[in-house]
Amino acid sequence: MDRFIFAQSLAKEAGAIAHGFFKNYSSLSLQEKEHPQDLVSEADLAVEKFIIEKISALFPDDGFLGEETGLVEKNNNYWVIDPIDGTANFVRGFRYYCISIAFVSNGAVDFGVVFDPCADELFYARRGNGAFIQSGDTKKSIHVDDCHFNRAIIEIGRCREGDDRPNFELLKKVFEKGAGLRHFGAGALALAHIGAGRLSACYETFIKPWDAFAGSIICEEAGAVANDYMESLWKDGGEVFVCVPSIAEEFKSIIRETESNSTL
Ligand code: IPD
After folding, report:
1. CB 97 within 8 A of CB 105
2. How far is the centre of ligand 1, averaged over its atoms, from the C-alpha of 59 (Å)?
3. Torsion angle in degrees (nearest 10) through CA of 205, 209, 211, 216
4. Separation of 1 CA from ligand 1 center, angstroms?
5. What's the gap in Å between 153 CA and the centre of ligand 1?
6. Which residues line ligand 1 (CB under 6 A)?
7. Helices 245-258, 168-176: inter-axial angle, 10-degree rounding
8. What is the tens place of the pLDDT at every residue in 34-54?
9. In the predicted model, is pLDDT for residue 162 greater than 60?
């Protein structure tokens, strides 16, 4: 079976399981991981287990990099999985989370799928083949919305690993240039929304591969500019920059001025 086709239905099946848990979010059992904002629920564990079992049954020689499982190396293929991106939203009943699955083969991201169960939207892209959205029976190709800086809506995330504080200088400069600022709390979904023309850019100094790989290839295939995320993120995590072409250089130069550790 073709892995890309399989991944699309797998993300939707996993999304249905996640959404079952989401309907009873207040009774989920939770554990804190590295700090009070870094949570894992029984839903994250059950959905990742489901995804890995399904993949292993069909592709037993493929490896994994999963948010809850960590790295399992086998051959040169890896499935990079975030069973629930936006866990902090999920466990509070905030309808902004997604399932994110990317496939890395021979050192490059080959395809990515991101499923938003609340909106019933599947975003998907394979390198060189464009990016698409499916909702119900309707499928269409998606493209970024190139715009001026003062029309842009930019997501700047901040994970709590590494430097804990938001970069207020960066936020201030972006805001002064007239862009809208957002941080919805599910990086993979924010990236998919850039691909769909709903957001203009996303920047995070440190993000994990499972939060970024699927969304980033969807964005590239929809016409966005991205940093070399395979280089910066694989396998431990790092900087991610994805942006519509019209403001990419301007946004990068603001980041360079305000983030001393940026490699952009
Ligand atoms: C987090 C979200 C958030 C991003 C963080 C991630 P999680 O993932 O994607 O938007 O800013 O860097 O850790 O913990 O909800 O899977």
Report:
1. no
2. 28
3. 90
4. 31
5. 19
6. 67, 82, 85-88, 157, 159, 185-187, 204, 207, 211
7. 140
8. 888 888 999 999 999 999 999
9. no
